[in-house]
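REQUEST FORM: STRUCTURE PREDICTION
Request ID: SP-0412
Submitted by: Lab K.M.
Chain count: 1
Length (residues): 257
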Amino acid sequence: MDLLHASQPYLPLALLVFLAGFVDSIAGGGGLITLPAYLAHGLSPALLLGTNKLSSAMGTTVAAAKLVGEARFGKDFLFILVVLAAAGSFLGAKAISLVPPEAIRYILIILLPPVAIFLAAKKSFGLADTSRARSEESLLRRSGSMSFLISFYDGLLGPGTGTFLAVAFARFCGYDLLRSTALARLLNLVSNLAALAAFLYLGMVDVKLGLAMGVAGMAGNYLGSHLALKRGTWIIRPMLFTVSTALLAKIAWDMLR
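STATUS: Completed
RESULT:
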């Protein structure tokens, strides 16, 4: 009984991290749930981002392994995208002092409504994979550009990176939303691991809490990626719309406070 009583304060946090992992594996945006959840739990703001990166990286590893294995991309192709994503994330982190976060938020306020409207209006978006209509060189160039640019944004600010990646790969490369989501999970994992390494080095991670919540995140990611593989675009597209709208609302709220 004592053990159960001691674990109770962690149960709401674990459930929210599980939910975040479920949502994140399908459409990104898990941080919209986990960051407020960690703060409500009482985690120090100094440890917030690092601890969240640890638990989310554990969960994203599960989703990336499950989805990428089914998406059937070439190893050389994936390697190039991973390198570009790592470079973009690193440079974005280095550029934080040069670009005011407020400027990025204003850009998102402009970009997010068209994304949400597009996802709501274009019912056929991402249903079919039209990437074969493009040459391998064109796909690599387009995918590489998206990987670098959006990972740069992830290093600079971060919210909604997985969502932006999935929509961009589907829109500009012609992948269906399942394959786009698989790539987004892999590249989001690369960015998370790069950031986590920095946070661990700086001692800004509650390792025990992050590992414990990471287990809940892994369970959520496993269930979400399983559902994405089973239901495909029919579950991914509405989730992308929901996350895009929620991200827009959060950014607008943060700017108005």
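NOTES: The CA atoms of residues 129 and 175 lie 5 Å apart.
Reviewed by: T.R.
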